[in-house]
Design goal:
- The chain crosses the membrane at residues 37-69.
- Keywords: Membrane, Transmembrane, Transmembrane helix.
- There is one protein chain.
- The protein has helices at 13-27, 34-50, 56-72.
- With 74 residues, the protein is an all-alpha fold.
- The chain has a domain at 29-72.
- The radius of gyration is 14 Å and the shape is globular.
Amino acid sequence: MTDPNLPPRNDDLLSQAGEEIKGMAKEGMHHPSTKPVLAGAAVGALAAGLLPVVTWPIGLVAGAGFMLYKRLRP
């Protein structure tokens, strides 16, 4: 959710994603987005294991990307 006390961010999605990924890399598991993105990656990899066409690395990236997007655009 967005915090009403913070000013709205007007920059584009790619720059926000870059900042978020840098923050996750710098802070590790202490960053608030790390755990949801890792959970999304795990779910995506498991779901891809059930599908005959999609391999697990594609599912992992898709799950992590979806959760990162949901963190940036709630």
